[in-house]
Amino acid sequence: MGTISRRTFFKGMILASAAALTACAGPGGVRRGQPAPAGADADPRPLPIPPLYEGELDGTDGTTRRFELTAQEGEYEIVPGHTTKTWGFNGAWLGPTLLMRRGEHIEMTVRNEVPEPTVVHWHGLHLPAAADGGPALMFPPGESWTPSWDVDQPAATCWYHPHPHETSALHAYRGLAGAIIVADEGPETIDFPSDYGVDDIPVIITDAKFTADYQLDETIDPTYGLLGDTPLVNGITRPRFEASRRVLRLRLVNGATMRFHHLELGVPFQVIATDQGVLSGPALVDGILLSPGERAEILVYLEPGKDLTLRSTGVPDGGGLPREEAANGFGLRDTFDLLQIAVPETLEGSGEGEEGKLVWDIHSEEPSAEGVPEREWRLNGFQINEQSMDMARVDAVIDHSGPELWHVINENADWPHNFHIHNARFRVHDIQDGEIAFRDGWHDTITIPPRSRVSLLVVFGQYPDPTLAYMFHCHMLFHEDEGMMGQFVIVEPGQEPALDHPNH
Ligand code: C2O
Ligand code: CU
Ligand code: CU
């Protein structure tokens, strides 16, 4: 695979105005019109279902689950009839779906058999910083890393992907990504479909662009990063899923490095969970926006004989970007057919009618925002609060166990951003000067529309450790790699951070 040729060109630059941002697009930076996805004219292929990897349960107490993941090189037929060099976990391309249950202890071994240093982050999990897989923990080819943690959070769809310093986008783009199912008693008592691969389906949305000989084009655009023109679901173009049951649960993961997706099915569907777990009750919607890194679980009620298509229909209102050119450049107006769902005349569980829709009502305790510590993070260009990521700097010290109110502001008029916090869950508390159509539930990643101020009520996992930081960042991975990331530490009351970052 090629090496990285861009970099530091725009580093440290503060992009304050639309004019500056336009200048940044540079030659070739502005794409026009609808991209032509590779393989768009080929016949659909069956949707690959990543293997469900439940690890090895420890014989002695049965509550320890051991996993072994190897990041490796391989080849895969992403586009029919063409072989592409790829990376994957325990296989050529992407990774297995990891299953873990609340209350279990996880012992993970990650082997690095790719030719570059990397590290794996468990996006959405609450765990000690030493297991979180931030950039300070990257490790060289040929070595292993063995984080361990206890699963102590409600059921959710999470995911894992690399987080090496300044090359996260490239490593994810090459294929290092997979889903995590956190299972928990609570939501499982709601009768959600949960037959993996049958009526409970991971839908991992990524994208690629290809060179003339169908290798991954690793050209990093100075404005749009690795935005691919060819959408992939579970790693292939034009997938088709054959449904067999009336109610289908899709675990939607936006694993794209830069792309926002507004997803529709042409019929209303129920949102049952956001990033951090099940909603307090069902929400019926016509579409949902997932920014890079976000997840949602949805239930689709199939009508016998009526095929459906999961489509990316373009971000409403061009994502709030006033200039058409910028909205197009970021792909916010692109539309794609992502996944065909073939629905036979006879479905198991048929005949329940509309009333067959699941309902539930979970009473969840809401933290209060009253009097909690507040912080402000201003996103601008590739920086946060006029600073680039520095692995030696601590941007926030959290020395209490309560929630905090984080005000995240997108100062750019012409750039979308989003915001992700490690080891945390948050509610969207307030939005000013912008709109987030669906804001219910617990999140760990959320879109921050241009010029808006989004206030998040954040609850952190409690694993005090003054020596290692957690990250918060824009999850457009090119922005993260360019420095749009900060660090926080969780410490005991009164404790001072004392970062230990051996590699840097
Ligand atoms: Cu999914 Cu810090 O990332
Ligand atoms: Cu994360
Ligand atoms: Cu960003």
Notes on the protein architecture:
- The structure is a single chain.
- By secondary structure, this protein is mainly beta.
- The protein folds into three domains: 45-183, Cupredoxins -  blue copper proteins (Immunoglobulin-like), CATH 2.60.40; 191-342, Sandwich (Immunoglobulin-like), CATH 2.60.40.420; 374-490, Sandwich (Immunoglobulin-like).
- It is 7% helix and 37% strand.
- The strands form five sheets. Strands 1, 13, 14, 15, 16, 17, 18, 19, 20 and 21 form a ten-stranded mixed beta sheet that branches. Strands 3, 4, 5, 7, 9 and 10 form a six-stranded mixed beta sheet that branches.
- Strand 4 (64-76) and strand 5 (84-89) form a beta hairpin.
- Bound molecules: CU-O-CU linkage and copper (II) ion (CU) (2 copies).
Structural class: mainly beta
Distance between the termini: 25 Å
- Share of helix among residues? under 10%
Report the CATH topology name of the largest domain.
Immunoglobulin-like
Rg of Cα set = 21 Å
Contiguous low-pLDDT stretches (5 residues minimum) are: 1-32
Number of domains: 3
**Number of continuous helical runs:** 6
Question: Which CATH first-tier class of the largest domain would you pick?
Answer: Mainly Beta
- Going by CATH, the architecture of the largest domain would be Sandwich
Strand content: 35-45%
Largest sheet: 10 strands, mixed
Ligands present: CU-O-CU linkage, copper (II) ion
Mean pLDDT across all amino acids? 91
In CATH, the homologous superfamily of the largest domain goes by the name: Cupredoxins -  blue copper proteins
Q: What is the general shape?
A: globular
Strand segment count? 31
